[in-house]
Write a structure and sequence with these properties.
380 residues; alpha+beta; 23 strands
């Protein structure tokens, strides 16, 4: 019997969040998910079959050995899995298969050798991940809650530090650096079952003028320090992502004005985060506030004076950055999408300010998953 409407997602589930979401296990070996009409099949290594069955995500679990071509399977696992996928397609008389953006070329090559046509669907394994289930939202809520726990401790560690004769912050006689703060936060996250596989940001002037610079060297009193933490829960694999700005000691009028503008921009973007509007509209609502406060947009061109350097936010879930962007050209916002909103201003001379929350676009309006204050003073 010929299978129609066949879709394929394949690769390493530990690295491919779309594949993980479909088979329910973060496998380190090659695997494939095949959807043929309403039937869902997982093709995985034989040692992993019971684990995938237990996850209960698919109708059938099989392995490469059950779909060997006449010439036999390669001893290489990736090649064998790709061969088995092609053989599965042959045995089900598939002549066209639809694939997603993440398909490794090895699978495409073996399908082509089997004379199976490949169609690319840019929304496959993207659209369904954008709209989060209640369970996914709860997992993100937990990740963000734990992120805020470590964020608060990190900011308080900076805010209550001592100061040496050079104006550097110290704790227990040791100078606080961007690197040591990130390392300290990483340990705190490990205690909670999280990893910081993409690192973190603890940045001050002048490096913070590059808004994605992770920070370098000693931290000083009297200047803003941006802390951006984005850990992954190693049980659920859903991410947290939160940014706050802290100033140890006296806050300058310039930094106060920057902070006020950023907080107002975040509020405007939050109000604009309505189902059916666009990521473009959300970004423009945020950027317009910053422009009205007199700050210029100099994206990609770090500046001495505070300027706008990036869009307003991004989707989040099983990856820390997911479609769509809250930025120019950003598409329609769907029900129960989850985004970060993170306007910021950055300059070499005075430093940077960014505040970031995670929000759900619900039919009733935006739901903020954050509870932390937005201010600059983090003394307990």
């Amino acid at each position: 019997m010929k299978s129609k409407n066949v879709r394929l997602v394949a690769g390493i589930a530990d690295k491919n969040a779309s594949l993980f979401r479909r088979i329910g296990q973060a496998l380190g070996d090659p695997a494939a998910y095949i959807q043929a009409d309403a039937r869902q099949v997982a093709l995985v290594r034989d040692l992993e079959m019971d684990r995938v069955r237990a996850a209960g995500k698919v109708d059938e679990v099989t392995c490469p050995a059950e779909h060997a071509p006449r010439s036999g399977l390669s001893a290489d696992r990736e090649t064998a899995t790709a061969q088995a996928v092609a053989q599965w397609m042959r045995s089900h008389h598939v002549d066209v298969v639809t694939v997603d953006r993440s398909l490794p070329y090895i699978f495409a090559w073996h399908l082509q050798q089997a004379e199976i046509a490949i169609q690319y669907d840019p929304q496959l394994a993207v659209l369904d991940r954008r709209q989060k289930s209640a369970d996914e939202i709860e997992k993100l809520r937990v990740s963000q809650r734990d992120t805020e726990t470590v964020m608060r401790k990190t900011l308080q560690r900076i805010a209550t530090a001592d100061v040496n004769d050079d104006g550097e912050l110290t704790v227990d006689g040791q100078v606080l650096t961007s690197q040591s703060v990130r390392g300290w936060a990483a340990v705190e996250f490990l205690k909670l079952g999280y990893t910081m596989s993409h690192g973190a940001i603890c940045a001050s002037l002048p490096e913070v003028a590059d808004c994605h610079h992770r920070g370098d060297g000693s931290l000083k009193s009297g200047v803003p320090i941006i802390v951006d933490l984005f850990p992954r829960n190693e049980t659920t694999r859903y991410w947290g992502d939160c940014t706050r700005t802290v100033v140890h000691g006296q806050v300058s009028e310039t930094v106060l004005a920057m902070h006020q503008a950023v907080v107002q921009a975040k509020a405007a973007a939050t109000e604009a985060l309505v189902v059916g509007t666009t990521g473009d509209a959300v970004h423009q609502a945020s950027e317009n506030v910053l422009l009205q406060h007199g700050y210029e947009s100099k994206r990609g061109k770090p500046s001495d004076e505070p300027s706008i350097q990036h869009g307003t936010g991004h989707g989040i879930g099983l990856d820390v950055h997911e479609p769509i962007l809250l930025d120019f050209g950003g598409g329609e916002i769907l029900e129960y999408e989850v985004f970060t909103i993170e306007p910021g201003l950055y300059g070499r001379n005075v430093g940077g300010v960014r505040v970031e929350d995670m929000l759900v676009a619900t039919p009733e309006g935006p739901e903020n998953l954050n509870r932390l204050p937005e201010g600059l003073d983090w003394k307990p």
